[in-house]
Each structure stands twice: as C-alpha cells, then as structure tokens.
C-alpha cells in the first residue's frame, strides 16, 4: 500500500489542531448548573471545560451561596451577565438563565446539570416510608429539572450539543443509606436515555455521568457516607477514591468532538467499582 492510499484524515486534523494550538473546546459555549462551592463536582467539571477552551455560563442557588460561588465565577473569567441565580424551584428562573444565554451568545454547545435534593427525613428513612411530597420534591429538583434544562437548551443547540447530568450507582443497585435517591437517580438515567433518543436526530447527545462517592455538601446528607467511601476505596479495581477533577476531565472529554457519537449511556467515573460492587 502506498502512502497515498492510506486514510490519515484524523491524524491530519489532530496534527493541524496541535500546530495551531487549538484547544478541544475552543469556541464552545456551555452552562454549568450545580456549583455550591469548590468541593462541588460541577466545579471540577467547570474547571476542566474552561481549561480546554470553553466559555461558560454559571449559576448559583441564591444570595446565601454567592460568597462561595462568586470567586469561582471570577476564576473562570465568567462575565457578570452570565453568572446568574437559579433555584429550579423558583418559577421562571431556569428559563431566565437560558434567555440570557440566548441574548449573550445566541447559541449553546453543552449543558451540565449537577444538582440533587431530597428532604432530610425522607432521605434518611426507608423508601417504603418516604412521603409523597418528599418523593415529588426530590424528583422535581433532581430529575424533572433536567428535562426542563433540555427543553430550554434544545432551540439554542443549533449545531448539535451535549447534555450531562450526575447520577450514582444507587440508581442501578441497592446501596445502603442511599434510599430515596436510588429511585430518583434511576428515573434520571432513564430520562437521559429517552432524551438521547428524542434529541439525537438534532445532533444533541445526552449522557448521565456516574461518579464514585466524593465528600461534598450534598454527600454529607447521606447517612454513614464515610463507610461508603471506605468501601469504595477498598473494593474499586483502582483502589482509589474519585476526585472532582477526575469527574471533570471525563465529562470534558464527553463534551468534545472526541465523543461525537457517544450518547444515551451512563459513563462511570468510579475506578471500576460498578463492575465489582
Ligand atoms: P454539591 O452539594 O456540591 O452540589 C449539589 C448542588 O445542587 C448544589 O450546587 C446545590 O445548590 C444544588 N441544588 C440543590 N437544590 C437546588 C435547586 N432547587 N435549584 C438549583 N440547584 C439546586 O454536591 P455534589 O456531590 O457535587 O452533587 C452534584 C451532583 O452529583 C448531584 O446530582 C449528586 O447527586 C451527584 N453525585 C454526587 C456524588 C457524591 O458522592 N458526591 C456521587 C454521584 C453523584
């Protein structure tokens, strides 16, 4: 075979990008919802997105969360017009965020949903005993808000795009003390599959990401979380706990064209725990 007959399209394109020092997410616009502080999984993702070239919009929950999130927005070079309040329980706030993105950018390439909530009593009891109101609230904040996010993102993703949400292994198997969040995450993963099927023809990919346990504020609401972490560290093939940076880099990969035809699947970032756990 002569050199001329060899298909080197990918090699040529990657060489060109290297020579021109083009970062994989250069020119891409993304939104990150779910940064509470610098321990948040969404913060690991935001750093990775920005670090490989993306421009970001970032939301914060409310005034109380501003002291923790404002310095992070600055570190990401986010303009004040794209650092916005968003409590998904507040009517109109999520829609207003996407309206602002439309005004500023006129389009969007990726969106990360990294939020969850369940009322404490419901989260700490058996699924058998959880209240109707608690279940509905957990589903609304942790799952249906992802559907709403997809709906608002869809018209802005004119060149295709990618939607991500954070799940957990408790969606798939019963994990002690994960309780109500198990069914909620199962619904979230199934939702992502349906969204992937519906939006795929428009070039919009949808993937849940399933990190291993990480000590964050949300995680502190789960009973005996320390034991869960110890178990994961001992059992995972990697014998290592996952960091927010690990999740960030893997999620940033999914946002690039390297993952152009990966959709619908849950991507585990758990050191392989799910294959043995
Ligand atoms: P975190 O506390 O840093 O983030 C949770 C976020 O949810 C916060 O930013 C909070 O403001 C936001 N949130 C809660 N209610 C909201 C509402 N009404 N409107 C808007 N935002 C709201 O904790 P985290 O661990 O980074 O959690 C992020 C996601 O990762 C969650 O979906 C969580 O279930 C998932 N996850 C966490 C772990 C872990 O071990 N920490 C593992 C797997 C998946």
Number of strands: 7
CATH topology name, in short, is Rossmann fold
Average pLDDT score: 97
**Ions, cofactors, ligands: which are bound?**
nicotinamide-adenine-dinucleotide
Strand count, sense and barrel status of the largest sheet are: 7 strands, parallel
| Residue windows where pLDDT falls under 50 for at least 5 positions | none
How large is the share of residues in beta strands? Answer: 5-15%
Oligomer: single chain
> What best-fitting shape do the alpha-carbon axes yield?
globular
Number of domains as seen in the coordinates: 1
The SS-based structural class is alpha/beta
Name of the CATH superfamily:
NAD(P)-binding Rossmann-like Domain
N- to C-terminal separation?
48 Å
> So, CATH architecture?
3-Layer(aba) Sandwich
Strand order of the largest sheet: 3-2-1-4-5-6-7
**Count of DSSP-assigned helices:** 10
What is the percent of helical residues?
40-55%
Description:
The protein has helices at residues 9-19, 41-51, 66-75, 93-104, 120-124, 132-153, 181-199, 225-235, 244-255, 273-276; strands at 29-33, 55-60, 83-85, 110-113, 161-166, 204-211, 267-269. The longest helix has 22 residues, at 132-153. Strands 3-2-1-4-5-6-7 form a seven-stranded parallel sheet, sandwiched between helices. The model has no long low-confidence stretch (mean pLDDT 97). With 277 residues, it is of the alpha/beta class. Helix 2 (41-51) crosses helix 9 (244-255). It is globular, with a radius of gyration of 19 Å. Strand 2, helix 3 (66-75) and strand 3 form a beta-alpha-beta unit. It has a single domain (24-276), classed as Rossmann fold, CATH 3.40.50. Nicotinamide-adenine-dinucleotide binds next to helix 2.
């Amino acid at each position: 075979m002569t050199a001329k007959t060899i298909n080197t399209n990918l090699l040529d394109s990657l060489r060109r990008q290297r020579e021109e020092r083009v970062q994989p997410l250069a020119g891409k616009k993304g939104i990150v919802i779910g940064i509470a502080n610098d321990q948040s999984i969404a913060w690991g993702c935001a750093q990775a997105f920005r670090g490989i070239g993306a421009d970001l919009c970032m939301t914060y929950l409310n005034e109380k969360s501003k002291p923790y999130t404002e310095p992070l927005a600055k570190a990401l070079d986010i303009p004040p017009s794209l650092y916005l309040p968003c409590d998904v329980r507040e009517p109109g706030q999520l829609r207003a965020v996407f309206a602002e993105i439309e005004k500023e950018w006129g389009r969007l390439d990726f969106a990360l949903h990294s939020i969850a909530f369940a009322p404490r009593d419901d989260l700490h009891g058996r699924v058998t005993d959880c209240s109707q109101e608690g279940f509905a609230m957990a589903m609304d904040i942790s799952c249906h808000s992802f559907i709403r996010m997809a709906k608002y993102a869809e018209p802005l993703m004119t060149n295709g795009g990618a939607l991500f949400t954070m799940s957990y292994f408790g969606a798939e198997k019963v994990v002690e003390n994960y309780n109500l969040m198990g069914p909620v995450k199962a619904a979230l993963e199934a939702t992502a599959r349906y969204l992937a099927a519906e939006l795929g023809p428009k070039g919009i990919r949808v993937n849940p990401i399933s990190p291993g346990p990480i000590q964050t504020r949300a995680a502190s609401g789960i009973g005996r979380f320390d034991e869960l972490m110890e178990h994961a560290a001992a059992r995972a093939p990697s014998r290592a706990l996952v960091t927010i940076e690990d999740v960030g880099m893997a999620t940033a990969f999914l946002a690039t064209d390297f993952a152009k035809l990966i959709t619908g699947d849950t991507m585990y970032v758990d050191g392989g725990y799910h294959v043995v756990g």
